[in-house]
Amino acid sequence: MKLSRAQIVDVALDLLNEVGIDALSTRLLAQRLTVQQPALYWHFKNKRALLDAMNEEMLRRGHRHRMPMPGESWQDFVRNNARSFRGALVAFRDGARVHAGTEAEPGELERFEQLLHFLGDAGLTPVMALELMMSIGRYTVGCVLEEQAAYPDGPGRGAALDAAASGFPLLSAALAHHRAGGHEALFESGLALMIAGTQARIAGGRRVAPRRSRVIRRPVP
User: Fold this and answer.
1) Distance in angstroms (rounded) separating the CA atoms of residues 219 and 84
2) Is residue 46 within 8 Å of 8, Cβ to Cβ?
3) Residue 134: domain span
């Protein structure tokens, strides 16, 4: 049976969940597919190309809220879009590391153009809109990266830090709140701050009245 690109990616994602990104190799993947390693190079010239395809498939499976729903506010869309993106990354072991360093596919450009129009209707310039989407995207990847690299639950560095912070009442209370909420609550808190900051930026821009040009009247000769 001829080996397909989709088959390779499916098996690669299964392997990712089993061994993690550091142990994932084309040699191991070829063994799992029971083919010779050069057979993979017909589809992927190197591991980076394979990771790009794995990232595309992860997003296809899990990132469902890519465009605004009818009547959805820009704040709700940005929030739901980020949650959807996060969900797609946390669904796979080392999902954030697979995604890091990738670029949007050319086929995605029309969607981004539509998003800039949508955010422009809310008062954002194209540059501000792209900055917002990129910043929240990178924030999401960073949050998931920290989450997937976190120490296992139980006694460890976290407990030692909490004990050391007990002598600092403000920090201790804030840290306890963070521990109770977990990764998802911290992600939501930071997301809310970014949306609030964007709202303030839009409101500030609307308050700035356009400057009137001064007309210099020359005396009638």
Assistant:
1) 66
2) no
3) 66-203
CB 174 within 8 A of CB 122: no
The DSSP 8-state label assigned to residue 156 in this structure reads S
Domain CATH for 140:
1.10.357.10
Same domain, 80 and 155: yes
Per-residue pLDDT averaged across 117-138, rounded? 96
User: Any idea what the CATH number is for the domain that residue 37 is in?
Assistant: 1.10.10.60
Predicted TM-score of the model (pTM): 0.86
133 CB neighbour count, 10 Å cutoff = 18
In a domain, 211, yes or no: no
Tens of pLDDT, residue by residue over 38-49, are 889 889 988 899
Structure token digits, residue 138: 């990178």
Residue 18: CA count within 13 A, CB half-sphere? 11
